[in-house]
């Protein structure tokens, strides 16, 4: 079995699914953010894989760089918000932050 | 030649109340009790003045109206026409769009303009009783006035629709703020019902616009104006039928015809007296006016298809409305206004029946009935208002013997009551008889069935008469209405009530004996209308075979 | 007098009472007692004018003339003087109306004017002191105006308009003492019952308008004569006739709509005399006579049967009533049945003749009863007895002595109504009975029922009228009140005298035994039927109806045959009627005067019959149980339907929308009731999931967003 | 790889086209500095921002349009300009709102950053309206999002604001994650990240319906999150309720505008089958019925927004659902997939801006005094503050879409576009929804005017600035309901999207 | 099996297994450290795919930056004594539903991969380093994005500081 693009894509897909699972199920806000990172990583794997199999199309790399950068930004801001939540609620359980609802 | 006064009288008559509205808004509200009283007085009399000028305008229109001109779909014979480009925009993509400020009247709308002016004028007087939120009240009242008048003079569908919707808003507040105990429910019910009807109208307007490229109602009546392959091109297509039904239902809700009528009793019962007057006197007419001005001439083929359905709707409304009025049976809960509201359903059924007949008598009768119902029911509601103002109840079971307590009132009331049951010599009879004469030609069986409405109508009216006016005065009303004598110096009518009631009574009697002035007004247009419809509809024509 | 003058006089006659109405309604309060004087004088003028018209029209002749002044078209001929104009015009459609005066109308005008005048006069005293004194005279004016309108109408539209106006003014007059519930009820009942008949009338008018595009009698009858039938259908002609006759059924209180008239006695007694004896109820007869020409044979048979039934039914009821006025009321119904029956059998002249004679003596009877009641009332008031019903004949007796003049006039007119020779009643009644006999002879078969019923009713009439006379006037006073009665003053008595004098034969015919020798039959000639030949009642001549073997000319002999038969039947009829009337009177004397038979015993023996009569054949009960209850029930039902079903549907939709929004609007409060129930309906896992997750948690949102995306993808691949 | 001189020429040209954005960036810089230097002047940044926005707006009108910039990764066309104008308008109104927001103006709170983030977010939105490169789109959306997360939680000591920002950031991160995954798939399919290039590939190569559908939907999910379309609307009510009301207003208009801009551009630039010589009706690549898909989403969005709004008692939350519903109406116009539809969206959006901002402004002014956004506390408000209540009612009627208000004209044109495209069923659903919406809008008016008419609560005095702004907005709402020719012309001129040639 | 395959499978298994720990572990610290392995594995995959610069970036930013941040986050929001350091229990339905969604998503994507016609060019040119190319493109084609990213970073820094700052 030769390695072809699908292997990488499936790897990315599984990572995507796991990330989604983490986002939905983990109670701790930090863990939810980790799930987001998994999702972003899966996208990155896709980018790099497509880049590689399309004659090393460099656009994919650029995209991946931006995604990494944005992931960092997002985590920074999100953690700041989580810390703020911690100050207000004394916990960071996402499912207990539910005062706003119908 | 179409009359034109060289001055935009239709614009004036329509937007005059807006000027009044601004004036009313400018009146400062007093800080203390006395100043407030003065400012209330000023606002009331501004409204009286404005509506009176409006009435004068209406009379000027009536006097200058050229009765020989046909109108309906012939733009050159509309009168007092004002036509300006209102909205013009160039689409780089689909050409340009044009909406016109197009006003004009013909025999179908002239009586309605007159009616609106009359009813709006007389209904100001019962409004004097309003004590809270006076400024808002008269502002809304005048806005409503503009909306109603606009509906009757607009010949551009877009403009028509704007006026049509414009009057919802003040009506909502007028019922909602100054209404009875269940005012919220009644107001929202009214609002939603009518909006349901009108939003579908909106879709039809858009479809028509794409079919002919303008909003001109008159152009919409000419099949040649339809672009080939547009939505409504051709005749007897399903989409045309559907569109007609959308319009018809939209208007039928306003009329209201059974089974779209349930908003009416609630709205009437809860609305303050003057608003009931306007609601019954003018607003309901907008439904039937919409039919005859818009739905029928634009979709004559669909009218042909649905004609008997329309007649059935009319017949069922007549009988069902009368039965419901009679069915106000639960002792202790009988409501005077509800009874009259249901009687309106019944009486407006005559209009629908008359229109469905497509005979000149029937259609004239229908328009005439619109006018007469406007005056008669206005009177009836004001009559209820008179005792409601004094006793603060409308329960039929709580009254009796008013004929002794208030003889003049009873006398005036009898004119309205007997007009409502179609007593000859009063205007209601002429129009109902004409409707029957026309409808019998086309739908004999339905007409006979509708005759049941006459008997039932007499039944509930006389029953009410007896309950309220005859018999003995109950204990609790033995004292004078207003022992302080401030508001009601006498037990009988006071001056402003005379001003409101007597002119209507005179109109009712006059038109009952000399209907021709009113019929002349509509004659040419009605005949032309019937001619337009003739190729498409069933018209009983034994006569023409003679 | 020229034709023009007659027209103008006619209009004046029409307008004058309206003037009286207007003056009294607006200035009545100010006029006070004078309002009666004003009204009576106006009616006096009216009467004079009527008599003038009567004299010149019936006994004069006119040259034909056709001219137009403005929109008014004058059409004058010897037969009828007409004024026509277009009232409502809509392009090609013109509704022409107008007034017409022929002999029928001229005579009727006098009847109306005279009785109205006398009633006005009578009322001045009778109604004195009433709180709404002037209002009363206003109403009388309105009524007279309307009645004159009916008389003068030469078209169905005016006829119908004034028909309704008569209805409304009678409503006002019957319910005049509206503080009394029974009075207000009676007014309402009268109006509504009349409306039922009017609906039929209106439908008849619609059919005719539909067919001819005009409502003028001339146009309609002219078209009919030219062979144009409504709907081109012969049956419809019959039906339209019957529909029009429905109006008469209502107004003339014919079976089955007769129930309103006895109740209408709640009105003041002069009113009863005016409208429920002489004029308004006669309007139905007048209408039938007016449109007589258009009735087909079948319609006429129908009319005859209705008349006969009414005559008999009412007579039986009158036997047992104890209320003075009610007896008279039923007697009126019975007599009206007579007239209708007479028209139905083709004794046109005699039917109308009976209308006139009956008008005099029945008005007199009512006014006399008014006199009695007035006296009783005052007596009761005088001695302070308020329990005694002043109208119950069982409380009277012996009034002959206290009220001699009333008694005498009453006796005269009782004789007249009983058909005793030398009275006008004898002339007309005999004519009618002869007509029925002739009719039965010619028609044969079941038609014999009609004369039999006629004679039976004549006998019954004589009996109950004398019962009334004897019980109330003869014998001894049965109560204190009756003892204290006093004769009334001349204002009340004068009308009685006039009317009773008019009940003698010599006004109408030199021969007290045969009306045909008088002027009346010459003035009132049966109109030529305009129905198609085969629909006219010649068929009665031939047992199997219209027979094609006969040529058309032969059928015009019917009238001759009929007249011949009437002539032959005249004496048999006279004898029989004398016998039955005499028998009735005799029996009344035997029972009530000489007490040879005990009335109570008879009642006991024939308890069933007595009850039927006393309870008026249970008509009111039946109607209440069926029609009234049905309508009320149905209207209740529709009220219910309206509130429950239609609103229910609308509210249901609102409910659905709201609850639907709960379902999709997911993240609502867990605790809100109803949500749980609703969610239970959502299937399985997903529903449970929604319920579990709707807490406003962001992770739930994410899950749903992704899930929603998946669903969208699922639907679009 | 590149001819350097070409690149320099292009960059010079691009910078000229980029002037409005550059002005924003300069303003941003000044604002950051000013915030550090002039600590005492609370609103200094507000004025700086206002000046910057106005300058930027002036530059917008002097731009050459229908140009590509930065090597085809950015486009300047009238469509983008239109949205930029809307965004600037929103900014200006929101800044005017912020002057009077009691929520924001608390003790010890510096407001400098507030305006800084507004400017930053505006920059992100400007980028988004013109971006034609998927990475740039992603970046722009993130720029917007990051700013808005912070803005939503700006009043950080208030619990519900922090909750809002947490929910917002998590939901936003997931949405952008999904979107970037979709971008990666599109990149795989087309081998490029530039929309024009992708379009060329899609026109020539058949990439398969299914992958294109999925990948596009994943990207659209990111847009849907911005415009709060179903099913990516979940964050909307909570965030709108929790965030300071100025930000709620801002989010409900500005970020939605940017979302719509990119959504429409995405369809028109990437999925158009024939960019050469197209007429105003779009033909899409492959056989996916995008029109239908968007129509379904639109129906779901407006229906959900409306029927849930009925239950709301918090005005902000109610308006949040109402803005979801309005996104549905706007999507109707987008679903038409032709230039008329685009024009109707543009028209509607301008009016939506007026009435929605007006409504939020009124709520803010009211809740400043009442101290609550609960609809029950608004009983009798119409008598305590007639002017605000009346203008509020005008906005609400406009939101319902009743003449003679601008909202009616907007709806009218959206329905026109829909009917013109033959999607009558969609129009029917649309009008039914307007009727439903009436119920909850009227509920507010009912509470203001019908209930509590006899309440004896004291009259409310509001600031002159607030009142004059709402009055101007209300007058505009009515004016555009009566006379709208210029707007029509403007929107129609702006409806064509530059896709190159 | 050449080394590329072997390493691919190694990294793949590493990524997936550590990711599973991340999403399932009840101990937050375990999760965070598993994430380290995931990132590391992804970097390995990058190397396999000739993305050397990316691999380095991945390690530097993700492991050096993001992960440290996350650990800070954990530490700052949990009491160090470790009693409370576990993530709370999640409901069964939620787990089931999340699992369902994730599985469906994965299956959907895999199905997509099987039907997609990727833009693949045959010429699989080998280059030593991608840095050159990245640098070129970044400052030409992606100039705008590059510059805008700096603005974004600036905003994010200010924002994070603003929000996280104690009162």
Rg from alpha-carbon coordinates of chain E: 20 Å
Strand numbers in spatial order across the main sheet of chain D? 1-2
Task: Please give the number of β-strands of chain E.
Answer: 0
Low-confidence spans of chain E: none
* Secondary-structure-derived class of chain D: mainly alpha
How much of the sequence lies in strands of chain D comes to under 5%
Query: How many DSSP H or I helices of chain E?
Result: 6
Question: Nutshell version of this structure?
Answer:
In chain B, 67% of the residues lie in helices and 4% in strands.
Give a verbal description of the structure:
The complex is a heteropentamer of chains A (102), B (546), C (717), D (501) and E (167). Chain C is mainly α and 717 residues long. Chain C has helices spanning 3-31, 34-59, 103-126, 133-152, 156-174, 181-212, 217-225, 234-251, 260-263, 269-278, 280-290, 297-318, 324-345, 348-383, 399-402, 404-418, 424-443, 449-473, 480-483, 490-501, 520-523, 552-555, 558-593, 599-605, 607-614, 619-664, 675-681, 684-693, 698-716, and strands at residues 65-69, 72-76, 81-90, 93-101. Chain C has a four-stranded antiparallel β-sheet. Chain C is globular. With 501 residues, chain D is mainly α. With 167 residues, chain E is mostly helical. Classes of the chains: A mainly alpha (102), B mainly alpha (546), C mainly alpha (717), D mainly alpha (501), E mainly alpha (167). At the A-E interface, helix 1, helix 2 and helix 3 of A face helix 1, helix 2, helix 3, helix 4 and helix 5 of E.
Set down the secondary structure blueprint.
The complex is a heteropentamer of chains A (102), B (546), C (717), D (501) and E (167).
Chain B: H1 9-26, H2 33-64, E1 79-91, E2 95-105, H3 110-122, H4 134-153, H5 157-166, H6 168-178, H7 183-212, H8 217-220, H9 238-254, H10 263-270, H11 273-298, H12 300-326, H13 336-357, H14 360-391, H15 402-405, H16 407-420, H17 427-442, H18 444-469, H19 495-513, H20 516-533
Helix pairs in contact in B: 1-2, 1-4, 2-3, 2-4, 3-4, 3-11, 3-14, 4-5, 4-6, 4-11, 5-7, 6-7, 7-9, 7-10, 9-11, 9-12, 10-11, 10-13, 11-13, 11-14, 12-13, 12-18, 13-14, 13-17, 13-18, 14-16, 14-17, 14-19, 14-20, 16-18, 16-19, 17-18, 17-19
Chain C: H1 3-31, H2 34-59, E1 65-69, E2 72-76, E3 81-90, E4 93-101, H3 103-126, H4 133-152, H5 156-174, H6 181-212, H7 217-225, H8 234-251, H9 260-263, H10 269-278, H11 280-290, H12 297-318, H13 324-345, H14 348-383, H15 399-402, H16 404-418, H17 424-443, H18 449-473, H19 480-483, H20 490-501, H21 520-523, H22 552-555, H23 558-593, H24 599-605, H25 607-614, H26 619-664, H27 675-681, H28 684-693, H29 698-716
Antiparallel strand pairs in C: 1-2, 2-3, 3-4
Helix pairs in contact in C: 1-2, 1-4, 2-3, 2-4, 3-4, 3-10, 3-14, 3-20, 4-5, 5-6, 6-8, 8-11, 8-12, 10-14, 11-13, 11-14, 12-13, 12-18, 13-14, 13-17, 13-18, 14-16, 14-17, 14-20, 16-18, 16-20, 17-18, 17-23, 18-23, 24-25, 27-28
Chain E: H1 3-24, H2 28-48, H3 52-77, H4 92-115, H5 131-139, H6 143-164
Helix pairs in contact in E: 1-2, 2-3
């Amino acid at each position: 079995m030769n390695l072809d693009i699908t292997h990488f894509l499936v790897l990315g897909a599984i990572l995507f699914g796991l990330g989604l699972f983490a986002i939905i199920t983990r109670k701790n806000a930090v863990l939810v953010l980790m799930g987001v990172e998994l999702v972003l990583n899966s996208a990155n794997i896709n980018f790099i894989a497509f880049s590689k199999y399309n004659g090393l199309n460099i656009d994919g790399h650029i995209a991946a760089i931006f995604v990494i950068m944005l992931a960092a930004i997002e985590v920074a801001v999100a953690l700041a918000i989580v810390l703020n939540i911690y100050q207000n609620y004394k916990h960071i359980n996402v499912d207990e932050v539910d005062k706003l609802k119908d | 030649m179409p009359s034109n006064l060289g001055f935009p009288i239709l614009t004036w008559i329509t937007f005059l109340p807006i000027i009044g509205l601004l004036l009313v808004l400018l009146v400062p509200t007093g800080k203390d009790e006395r100043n407030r009283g003065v400012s209330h007085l000023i606002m009331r009399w501004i409204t009286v003045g404005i509506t009176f000028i409006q009435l004068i305008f209406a009379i000027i229109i009536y006097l200058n109206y050229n009765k020989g001109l046909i109108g309906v779909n012939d733009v050159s014979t509309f009168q007092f026409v004002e036509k300006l480009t209102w909205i013009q925009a160039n689409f780089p993509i689909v050409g340009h769009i044009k909406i016109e400020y197009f006003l004009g009247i013909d025999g179908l709308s002239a009586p309605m303009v007159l009616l609106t002016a009359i009813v709006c004028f007389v209904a100001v007087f019962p409004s004097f009783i309003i004590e809270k939120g006076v400024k808002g009240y008269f502002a809304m009242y005048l806005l409503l006035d503009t909306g109603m008048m606009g509906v009757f003079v607009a010949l551009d569908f877009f403009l028509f629709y704007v006026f049509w919707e414009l009057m919802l808003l003040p009506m909502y507040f007028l019922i909602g703020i100054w209404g009875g105990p269940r005012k919220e429910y009644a107001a929202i019910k009214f609002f939603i019902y009518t909006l349901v009807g009108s939003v579908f109208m909106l879709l039809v307007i858009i479809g028509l616009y794409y079919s002919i490229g303008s909003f001109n109602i008159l152009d919409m009546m000419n099949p040649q104006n339809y672009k080939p392959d547009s939505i409504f091109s051709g005749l007897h297509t399903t989409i045309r039928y559907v569109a007609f039904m959308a319009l018809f239902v939209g208007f039928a809700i306003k009329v209201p015809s059974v089974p779209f009528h349930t908003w009416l009793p609630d709205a009437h019962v809860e609305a303050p007296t003057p608003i009931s007057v306007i609601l019954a006197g003018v607003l309901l007419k907008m439904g039937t006016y919409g039919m005859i001005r818009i739905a029928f001439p634009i979709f004559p083929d669909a009218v042909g298809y649905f004609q008997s359905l329309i007649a059935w709707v009319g017949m069922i409304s007549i009988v069902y409305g009368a039965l419901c009025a009679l069915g106000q049976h639960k002792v202790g809960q009988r409501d005077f206004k509800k009874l009259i509201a249901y009687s309106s359903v019944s009486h407006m059924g005559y209009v629908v029946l008359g229109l469905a007949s497509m005979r000149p008598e029937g259609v004239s009768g229908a328009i005439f009935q619109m006018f007469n119902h406007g005056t008669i029911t206005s009177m009836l509601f004001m009559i209820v208002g008179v005792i409601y103002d004094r006793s603060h109840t409308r329960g039929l079971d709580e009254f009796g013997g008013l004929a002794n307590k208030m003889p003049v009132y009873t006398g005036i009331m009898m004119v309205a009551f007997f007009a409502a049951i179609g007593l000859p010599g009063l205007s209601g009879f002429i129009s109902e008889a004409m409707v029957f004469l026309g409808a019998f030609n086309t739908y004999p069986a339905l007409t006979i069935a509708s005759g049941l409405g006459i008997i039932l109508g007499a039944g509930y009216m006389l029953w009410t008469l007896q309950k309220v006016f005859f018999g003995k005065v109950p204990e609790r009303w033995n004292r004078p209405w207003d022992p302080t004598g401030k508001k009601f110096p006498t037990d009988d009518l006071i001056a402003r009530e005379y001003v409101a009631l007597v002119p209507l009574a005179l109109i009712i009697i006059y038109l009952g004996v000399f209907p021709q002035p009113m019929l002349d007004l509509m004659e040419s247009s009605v005949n032309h209308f019937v001619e337009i419809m003739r190729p498409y509809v069933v018209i009983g024509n034994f006569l023409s075979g003679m | 007098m020229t034709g023009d003058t007659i027209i103008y006089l006619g209009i004046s006659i029409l307008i004058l009472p309206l003037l009286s109405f207007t003056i009294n309604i607006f200035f009545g309060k100010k006029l006070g007692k004078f309002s009666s004087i004003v009204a009576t004088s106006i009616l006096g003028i009216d009467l004079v004018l009527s008599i003038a018209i009567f004299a010149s029209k019936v006994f004069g002749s006119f040259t034909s003339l056709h001219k137009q002044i403005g929109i008014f078209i004058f059409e004058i001929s010897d037969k009828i003087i007409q004024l026509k104009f277009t009232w409502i015009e809509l392009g090609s459609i013109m509704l022409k109306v107008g007034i017409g005066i022929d002999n029928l109308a001229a005579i009727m005008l006098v009847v109306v004017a005279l009785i109205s005048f006398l009633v006005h006069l009578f009322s001045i005293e009778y109604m004195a002191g009433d709180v709404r004194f002037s209002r009363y005279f206003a109403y009388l004016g309105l009524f007279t105006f309307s009645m004159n309108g009916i008389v003068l109408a030469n078209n169905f539209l005016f006829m119908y308009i004034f028909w309704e106006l008569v209805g409304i003014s009678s409503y006002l007059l019957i319910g005049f003492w509206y503080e009394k519930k029974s009075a207000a009820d009676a007014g309402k009942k009268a109006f509504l019952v009349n409306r039922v008949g009017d609906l039929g009338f209106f439908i008849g008018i619609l059919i005719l308008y539909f067919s001819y595009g005009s409502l003028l009698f001339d146009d309609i009858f002219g078209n009919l004569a030219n062979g144009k039938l409504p709907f081109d259908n012969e049956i419809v002609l019959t039906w339209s006739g019957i529909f029009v006759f429905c109006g008469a059924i209502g107004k003339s209180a014919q079976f089955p709509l007769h129930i309103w008239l006895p109740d209408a006695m709640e009105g003041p007694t002069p009113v009863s005399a005016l409208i429920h004896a002489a004029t308004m109820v006669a309007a139905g007869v007048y209408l039938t006579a007016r449109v007589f020409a258009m009735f087909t044979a079948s319609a006429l048979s129908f009319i005859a049967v209705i008349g006969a039934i009414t005559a008999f039914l009412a007579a039986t009821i009158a036997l047992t009533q104890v209320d003075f006025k009610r007896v008279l009321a039923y007697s009126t119904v019975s007599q009206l049945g007579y007239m209708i029956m007479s028209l139905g059998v083709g004794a046109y002249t005699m039917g109308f003749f009976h209308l006139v004679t009956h008008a005099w003596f029945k008005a007199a009877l009512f006014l006399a009863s008014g006199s009695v009641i007035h006296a009783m009332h005052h007596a009761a008031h005088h001695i302070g007895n308020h329990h005694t019903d002043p109208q119950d004949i069982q409380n009277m007796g012996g009034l002959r002595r206290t009220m001699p003049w009333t008694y005498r006039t009453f006796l005269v007119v009782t004789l007249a109504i009983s058909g005793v020779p030398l009275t006008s009643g004898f002339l007309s009644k005999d004519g009618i009975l002869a007509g029925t006999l002739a009719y039965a002879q010619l028609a044969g078969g079941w038609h014999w029922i009609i004369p039999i019923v006629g004679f039976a009713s004549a006998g019954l009439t004589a009996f109950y009228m004398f019962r009334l006379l004897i019980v109330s006037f003869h014998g001894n006073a049965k109560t204190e009140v009756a003892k204290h009665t006093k004769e009334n003053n001349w204002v009340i008595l004068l009308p009685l005298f006039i009317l009773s004098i008019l009940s003698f034969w010599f006004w109408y015919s030199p021969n007290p035994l045969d009306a045909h020798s008088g002027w009346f039959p010459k003035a009132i000639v049966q109109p030529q039927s305009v129905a198609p030949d085969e629909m006219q009642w010649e068929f009665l001549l031939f047992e199997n109806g219209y027979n094609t073997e006969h040529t058309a000319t032969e059928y015009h002999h019917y009238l001759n045959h009929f007249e011949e038969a009437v002539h032959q039947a005249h004496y048999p009829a006279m004898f029989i009627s004398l016998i039955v009337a005499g028998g009735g009177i005799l029996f009344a004397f035997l029972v009530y005067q000489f007490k040879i038979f005990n009335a109570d015993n008879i009642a006991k023996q024939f308890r069933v019959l007595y009850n039927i009569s006393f309870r008026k054949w249970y008509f009111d009960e039946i109607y209440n149980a069926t029609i009234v209850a049905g309508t009320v029930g149905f209207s209740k039902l529709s009220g219910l339907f309206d509130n429950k079903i239609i609103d229910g549907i609308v509210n249901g939709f609102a409910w659905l929308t709201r609850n639907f929004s709960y379902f999709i609007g997911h993240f609502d409060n867990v605790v809100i009731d109803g949500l749980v129930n609703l969610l239970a309906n959502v299937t399985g896992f997903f529903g449970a999931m929604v319920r579990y997750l709707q807490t406003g948690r962001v992770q739930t949102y994410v899950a749903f967003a992704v899930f929603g995306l998946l669903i969208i993808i699922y639907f679009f691949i | 790889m590149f001819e350097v001189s070409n690149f320099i020429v292009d960059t010079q040209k691009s910078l000229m086209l980029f002037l409005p954005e550059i002005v924003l960036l300069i303003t941003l810089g000044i604002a950051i500095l000013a915030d550090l230097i002039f600590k005492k002047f609370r609103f200094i940044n507000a004025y700086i921002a206002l000046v910057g926005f106005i300058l930027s707006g002036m530059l917008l009108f002097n731009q050459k349009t229908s140009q590509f910039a930065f090597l085809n990764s950015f486009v300047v066309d009238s469509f983008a300009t239109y949205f930029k104008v809307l965004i600037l308008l929103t900014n200006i109104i929101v800044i005017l709102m912020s002057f009077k927001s009691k929520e924001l103006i608390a003790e010890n709170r510096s407001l400098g950053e507030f305006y800084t983030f507004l400017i930053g977010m505006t920059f992100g939105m400007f980028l988004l309206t013109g971006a034609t490169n998927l990475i740039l789109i992603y970046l722009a959306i993130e720029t917007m999002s990051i700013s808005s997360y912070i803005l939503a939680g700006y009043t950080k000591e208030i619990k519900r604001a922090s909750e809002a920002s947490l929910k917002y950031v998590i939901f936003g991160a997931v949405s952008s994650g999904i979107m970037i995954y979709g971008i990666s798939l599109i990149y795989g399919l087309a081998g490029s990240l530039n929309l024009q290039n992708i379009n060329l590939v899609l026109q020539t190569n058949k990439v398969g319906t299914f992958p294109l559908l999925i990948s596009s939907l994943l990207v659209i999910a990111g847009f849907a999150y911005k415009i709060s379309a179903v099913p990516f609307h979940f964050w909307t009510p909570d965030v709108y309720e929790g965030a300071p009301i100025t930000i709620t207003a801002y989010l409900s208009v500005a970020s939605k505008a940017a979302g719509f801009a990119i959504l429409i551009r995405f369809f028109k630039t990437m999925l158009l089958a024939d960019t050469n010589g197209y007429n105003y009706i779009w033909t899409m690549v492959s056989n996916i019925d995008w029109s239908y898909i968007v129509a379904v989403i639109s129906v779901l969005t407006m229906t959900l927004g409306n029927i849930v709004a009925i239950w709301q008692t918090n005005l902000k939350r109610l308006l949040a659902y109402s803005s979801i519903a309005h996104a549905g109406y706007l999507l109707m116009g987008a679903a038409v997939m032709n230039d008329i539809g685009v024009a109707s969206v543009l028209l509607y959006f301008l009016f939506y801006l007026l009435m929605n901002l007006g409504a939020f402004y009124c709520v803010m002014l009211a809740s400043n005094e009442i101290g609550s956004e609960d609809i029950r506390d608004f009983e009798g408000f119409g008598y305590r503050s007639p002017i605000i209540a009346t203008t509020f009612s005008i906005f609400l009627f406009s939101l319902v879409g009743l003449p003679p208000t601008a909202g009616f004209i907007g709806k009218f044109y959206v329905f026109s576009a829909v009917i013109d495209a033959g999607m009558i069923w969609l129009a029917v659903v649309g009008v039914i929804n307007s009727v439903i919406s009436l119920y909850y809008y009227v509920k507010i008016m009912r509470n203001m005017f019908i209930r509590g008419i006899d309440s004896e609560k004291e009259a409310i005095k509001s600031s002159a600035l607030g009142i004059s702004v709402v009055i101007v907005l209300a007058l505009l709402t009515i004016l555009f309901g009566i006379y709208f020719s210029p707007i029509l012309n403007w929107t129609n001129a702006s409806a064509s999207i530059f896709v190159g040639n | 099996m050449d080394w590329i395959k072997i390493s691919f499978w190694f990294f793949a298994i590493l990524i997936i297994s550590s990711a599973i720990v991340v999403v399932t572990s009840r101990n937050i610290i375990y999760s965070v450290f598993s994430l380290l392995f995931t990132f590391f594995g992804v970097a390995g995959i990058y190397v396999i795919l000739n993305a050397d610069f990316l691999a380095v970036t991945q390690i530097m930013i993700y492991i050096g930056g993001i992960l440290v941040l996350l650990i800070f986050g954990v530490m700052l929001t949990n009491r160090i004594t470790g009693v409370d350091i576990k993530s709370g229990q999640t409901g069964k339905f939620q787990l089931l539903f999340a699992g369902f969604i994730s599985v469906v998503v994965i299956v959907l994507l895999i199905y997509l991969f099987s039907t997609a016609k990727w833009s693949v060019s045959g010429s699989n040119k080998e280059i030593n380093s991608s840095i050159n190319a990245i640098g070129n493109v970044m400052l030409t084609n992606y100039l705008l994005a590059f510059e805008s990213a700096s603005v974004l970073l600036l905003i994010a820094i200010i924002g994070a500081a603003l929000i996280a700052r104690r009162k």
